[in-house]
Each structure stands twice: as structure tokens, then as C-alpha cells.
Design a protein that fits this description.
about 325 residues; alpha/beta; Stationary-phase Survival Protein Sure Homolog, Chain: A; nine-stranded mixed beta sheet; two-stranded antiparallel ribbon; binds 2-acetamido-2-deoxy-beta-D-glucopyranose; Survival protein SurE-like phosphatase/nucleotidase domain-containing protein; metal-binding; SurE-like_Pase/nucleotidase; hydrolase
Amino acid sequence: MKILTPLTFLATTVFAKNILMSNDDGWASTNIRAFYYKLKEAGHNVYITSPVSQRSGYGGKFDIPESNVLEIDGEFSYPPAGSPAWGHEEFDDHIWYFNGTPASCIAFAFDYLLPKYFDNVTIDLVVAGINEANNYGSYFTLSGTMGATYNAVYRGYPAISFSASNWNNSFYKDNLDLNDPLLESTIVATKAVELVNQVFESQGENPRALGLGVGLNVNFPAVGYDDETCMDPKWTFTRITGEAAAGADLQYDEKTNTFGWGDDQTWAPLTACYNGDCTLPSETYIIKYGKCQATISTFSIDFDANAALTSQVKDILNPLF
Ligand SMILES: *[C@@H]1O[C@H](CO)[C@@H](O)[C@H](O)[C@H]1NC(C)=O
Ligand SMILES: *[C@@H]1O[C@H](CO)[C@@H](O)[C@H](O)[C@H]1NC(C)=O
């Protein structure tokens, strides 16, 4: 029975990886902190570089601080105006904020923080989130969580974006409770670690955890206090567009002569399938109509249309050449 000791030791060391984490809800949000601690609990070495304030909907926007001092309070006044424009938790020098966007937070990590303070440690995987609210379908381009993810993929890192269903903007000092089994942040962080560990386990001796230019988009359904029948969502393979995939729209109000958000619209191009596995259900459909299912979609940053579509366009433009 003594043999169990070295085996357990081996299992924990094999999967001790270096992970960079960002989000768009800000470094002080409950979900990112829960994810951080759950990955550390699993033995990983984790670094957070996240915006100092809520940067949801910033997509891939690449803001850089205009000064080295914060002019306005960070989210939840944490930290307050007048603090440095980047810095870390006093109690943990792996948890950093940066007065930028999710996309520039990834660059901040690779171009400044890791080389300057962490011996240019090799990052095995970049994760973003866990976002407050789902990011599916056309939100690929709108979401700051996705912005961080595809910026990491551009730079050659495997990256995974995670989004939960509850959009409450929550401060970790009010809400983090890693021992509450019904808390959404705790449940989704635990599930996210399960996926991350599977990616590393399958990686084995391969130098990369996912193919070059490939990333994943993961969404969780309502869980725990929001749906007590769903404590352990079932993984489901999906595609990003397809049935029910929708995009943001606006609504004009005659009376007030103002615009507001309209309902998301399912436009035909969002349901067409040109790339990927067309037999898979869309992540939007599964999150909206599925039963306690978590979705995993694969994307690549090869933005080109496929060969058949490219050839159609070549025919259209042929006289120009
Ligand atoms: C850090 O490591 C990366 C990847 O090995 C390399 O491309 C980069 O030049 C290094 N940066 C510094 C400042 O050493
Ligand atoms: C939402 O977040 C606020 C601020 O952190 C917190 O006080 C509140 O309890 C949260 N509500 C839920 C339903 O999680």
C-alpha cells in the first residue's frame, strides 16, 4: 500500500503547470478569484493580470494606461484613485491589476510582468474568466473575455475562455466562499479546473496543450443557488455559431428620441455552417435550451473564409486581376 505515496506525488507534479489568467470584469471580481484559488488548489502556478475596472464588451480593444497613476477608482474602489496604474495584492504578488483592457492585460503579462518579475516563466496555458454572464455566438467579437483569449492565441499560447450564466457584478471580498458548494463561482471554478486538468493530461509529453492558433470557448449554465437541480453540468461539445446564435441589436424609442438595447437577433449568417463540424449543436442553443449542460466550442484565429468561399469571391473579382 506504501506505493500510493509516490504515485500520488507523481500525479500532482506532472500537472503542476504555469497558467496566466485574465478576465474583463476586473481583477477584484469573485469569479476570477475563485478560479485562481481552485487552480492553485490543483497544484498549478497561476498569475492574474486583469483590468482594474469592469471592461465587459471591450472585445479586443487594446487600451494602454495614459498615466502611471489611476485617475479614477478601480472597480469596487479597489484600489482607489491615486493608486499606481498597475500593481498587485499586498498579500499575493501573483495577483495583478493593470489599467488597460483584457487584450492589453495579456500583453502586460508577457511583455512586462513575467520577464521583469518572474524570470520570464514559460506559460503553458492562458485562461480568461470566469466571466460574469455567458459569451456565445457573436459575442465572440464583443466580449472582453474573448479579447484576452484570442490575444493570447495570437501570441502562440493555447487559451480557453470561460463564462458563467449569472451576470451579477460581484466583489470577491463580499462573495468569495470556496467552501459554499451552492455558490456559482465555486461550482464553475471547480468544473473549469476539471477541463483544464484534462487538457494537460491529454497533452502528455507534447509541447503544446492545443494546436497552434486554436482556442476554446466554454460556457456554463445556471448552477447552484440559481438552479439547485444543476450542481455538476455535463460537458457538451458544441460550435460557436449555428441554431439560435444571435447578435446584439438596438431599439429606437420615438417618444424619448433615444436608443436602448433591443433583444438579440438571430440573423441567417450566424446560423450558416462553413467551417468546423456542422453536426454539432450551437453553444447558444445548448445554454438557452439544454438541461444542465456546459458547452465547449473550438475556434481558430485563421480568420479566412474557407477555400470554396474564397474561390467564389475570386470569380466575382476575376476581371480585376
Ligand atoms: C521571454 O520568453 C519568450 C519565449 O521564450 C521570448 O520570446 C522572449 O524574448 C523572452 N523575453 C525576455 C524579456 O527575455
Ligand atoms: C451581487 O454582488 C454584490 C456585490 O458584490 C453582492 O453584495 C450580492 O450579494 C451579489 N448578489 C448575488 C445574488 O450574488
